[in-house]
Amino acid sequence: MVTTATDVTAAGPQPPLLRTENLSVCIDSHGERNTVVSDVNLELTAGRTIGIVGESGSGKSMTAAAIMGILPPVATAQGRVFYQGTDLLTLDDKARRAISGPELAYIFQEPMSALHPMLSIGAQMIRPMRIHLGLSKREARERSAELLDQVGIPKSRGLLGAYVHQLSGGMRQRVMIAMAISCQPALLLADEPTTALDAAVQKQILELLLDLRDQLGLGLVLISHDLGLISRYADDVLVMLDGDVMEQGPTADVVANPTHPYTRGLIESAPRIGHVPRRLPTIDRAKFSTRALADKEAR
Ligand SMILES: Nc1ncnc2c1ncn2[C@@H]1O[C@H](COP(=O)(O)OP(=O)(O)OP(=O)(O)O)[C@@H](O)[C@H]1O
Ligand SMILES: [Mg+2]
What we know:
By secondary structure, this protein is an alpha/beta fold. 37% of the residues lie in helices and 25% in strands. Helix 4 crosses helix 5, helix 5 (137-150) crosses helix 6 and helix 6 runs parallel beside helix 7. Magnesium ion is lined by residues 60-61, 109, 191.
């Protein structure tokens, strides 16, 4: 983000919840190194939402995975990821897990692959609370039912014995959110949390995330390919293309006065209700993507 303000409390200035400095991700494959995220600088304070928007393959999930410390083995993060002032990239695995296990939560892009098909919802919800909060099995089960109630699945005791394939898309997403907040995180990264859902359920889920952000004082990183969605729900935005940040700033400013032609293209090419152009404008992405330009030159 964009605000550089440091929170000031009675205890004095506090570091922001999350700040990245030149965060980059490289992938090594077949003896080649490719940069898939380049120099991401963002800042997020508790109670606010930052949106990361970009087309498929632009590096949104890799940025989130680098912050969470869950990159695939072929990928390496460089730069800095400060969480409450501590650079997570300098910690060893154990020290990092001690922080990111309970305090950083990730809602995966694909709930069907993130939830275990052979374990009941209850079994999956209970485990992290037993590990990170030290709850007994019974306490964790009680808490699971409360959490499902909190995310809009009331009378959920029966659901604890159900399996992921038995749930609707909206319910799966609510279960993912309940699991994500179960260990009382301070930072929540939601990766395309509503892609496969219809418009009405999408709105309910996003409003739920914002309500939880306010109730629990979370910092929320909201990832989407949809600039319209980000403009409705995020305070600040980062527009990415092929791993590069094209533009960033307060969402209202970026949407009202985009300075980068790629962002202008994204806004102009979004379909709008009540305005049906004969042809939707398209973006010549090769003009803006350093990766596409390099590929063109190599040919
Ligand atoms: N496990 C992996 N191994 C190798 N390359 C990967 C892997 N995961 C992602 N990539 C590459 O990293 C780049 C960024 O991918 P990323 O998943 O961050 O994109 P994204 O913006 O989240 O896209 P989407 O909207 O489709 O989810 C892409 O070029 C992708 O092909
Ligand atoms: Mg992704």
